[in-house]
Design goal:
alpha/beta; Rossmann fold; seven-stranded parallel sheet; 8 helices; globular
């Protein structure tokens, strides 16, 4: 097993799990950390992103391996590394999936749950975050696709904070974040991209939380 496993989880699609995983993975590689991505989502978004990135020969190079949630240990073992960033599927189709998720949350150093500031989504995410926290996982909600000035965002913060910790950074709604993901890039590696500052701040939070030794701060 890696020294550090960072799990990016959530009960539904579209919250930004793969985007968060890709930016954390590139940030780790930029900081000189031996890191690998593990795509446990059948949709394979993180895997497709890594293939697009490899096709462009973008540096730093990243490795992403596929797998299934119940067999996450086997997937992680295929590419030994110091840090593994695991992108999870949006739903739990079977009891085996649920049991594997709880086991993984306990084994991980950090569970990041991207959350959209929307009513139904927030309620479901809060339930999932609280459940993973009860299993012993170190759970942090990451507010994603935030639009400044919306009162609903403050409501979402308060609701989520009652279930688990909120990350000290929020990811703004920026087209560049999605465009980068669609082309094998990440905003964390380019200061010209909107969202770069926030994802770099998220990486610094992860470094401090996991007490990682890095060659440089992203």
């Amino acid at each position: 097993m890696p020294t550090h496993m960072i799990v990016v989880a959530g009960p539904k699609g579209g919250t930004g799990k793969s985007t968060t995983a890709s930016n954390l993975l590139v940030a780790a590689r930029m900081a000189g950390v031996d890191a690998v991505g593990v795509d446990l989502d059948p949709q394979g978004s993180l895997m497709t992103w890594s293939q697009d990135r490899a096709g462009l020969a973008v540096q730093p190079a990243v490795t992403v391996v596929p797998g299934q949630l119940p067999d996450w240990r086997d997937a992680v073992a295929t590419a030994p590394s110091r840090v593994a960033v695991l992108d999870l599927p949006p739903g739990l189709g079977t009891q085996a999936d649920a049991e594997a998720l709880h086991e993984l949350a306990r084994a991980a150093r950090l569970v990041v749950v991207p959350a959209l500031p929307e009513g139904p989504s927030v309620r479901k995410l809060a339930d999932v975050g609280a459940a993973l926290k009860r299993t012993g996982g170190d759970v942090v909600f990451l507010m994603n696709k935030v639009i400044a000035g919306r009162t609903i965002t403050e409501d979402a913060r308060a609701y989520l904070a009652a279930s688990a910790e909120l990350a000290p950074v929020e990811i703004p709604m920026r087209d560049s974040i999605h465009r980068a993901m669609d082309s094998g890039l990440s905003v964390v590696e380019n200061t010209d991209f909107g969202g770069c500052t926030q994802y770099r701040e998220l990486w610094r939070f992860v470094v401090a939380r996991l007490r990682l030794d890095t060659a440089e701060a992203a």
